[in-house]
Amino acid sequence: MARVAVLDDWQGEAERLADWSAVRARAEVVFFRNAMPDADELVRALAGFDIVLAMRERSALPGSTLRRLKDLKLLTFTGARNAAVDIPAATAQGVLVCNTVPGPGLHGTAELTFALLLACARRIPQADAHMRAGGFQDGVPSGMDLARRTLGIVGLGHIGARMARYAQAFDMKVIAWSQNLTDERAREVGVERVGKDELFARADAVTIHVVLSPRSRGLVGAAELGRMRRGAILLNTSRAPIVEQGALLAALNEGRIVAGLDVYETEPLPAGHPLRGAPNTVLTPHLGYVTAENMVGLYQASIENMLAFLDGKPIRVVNPEVRAS
Prior knowledge:
The chain is an alpha/beta fold. Helices cover 36% and strands 15% of the residues. It has 14 helices and twelve strands. It has helices at residues 14-17, 21-24, 39-46, 63-66, 87-92, 106-122, 124-132, 158-169, 183-189, 196-202, 222-227, 245-253, 292-310, 320-324; strands at residues 2-6, 27-31, 51-54, 74-77, 96-98, 150-154, 173-177, 192-193, 205-208, 232-236, 257-261, 281-283. The strands form two sheets. Strands 8-7-6-9-10-11-12 form a seven-stranded parallel β-sheet, with helices on both faces. Strands 2-1-3-4-5 form a five-stranded parallel β-sheet. Helix 4 (63-66) links the parallel strand 3 and strand 4 (74-77). The chain is globular and about 60 Å long.
């Protein structure tokens, strides 16, 4: 009987969110809740497993790790792409890789981003903590109206465009910039295209919605953060390395900006990480795409991938050259 490892079930919900009975009729299924950042620990845990399901960009599966997983035949991951998986190495090893196109839901990430914007603008976490400690308004800073404020969007793709619509519903002015943004796309979404420097200087809140790549890594650094208005809000639900972490911590500790963050360079975020104690922050544990509706779809598609593989008719194959060989 085949063995299936379900990685990265950090919330302990994978088993209840999908019907695993068809897979269990043909394979042993083991759910792993704990993160395993140590490669040796991960290799030991996955010894003897034929199929591995990895959550997008949680467990790292570089070539050095994949080459040690001698029993692995199918690696399926949630989402359309996974930068934490070395697909060429898997291909060289003869491991079939499948995804779950179309990938994480766009509604969830945009909705969480706007929730972070509201939480930062109205100081909701501070107010909640103060109430629970027995206080009331005393000591809770005044919030910020969003109406008539300016939202700057870095990256006007599907999520960025959705953020623009949310902001417009709140009577915000919306400006946008990205390396590939055209006037035509800006007009289509109903926003003003501006230069990068102007966006950071004008915006009362900046939200990031670009894919992490060599070109976007460090895209927002000390210069960009230095142009932001004092008290302006930075939102990052994309990927942490897009923002230079040292510059971000400096801006926060100096009280220059407020930040709503859902992504971190190391996940789970270490207990002693300086961001956990940084002022003027609202932190969520990478929940952008983590809604019940979306996770049900991701796990169900993953189950379909496993069953198709066991039937000898794999679907959603990322490296078809393995199937052809």
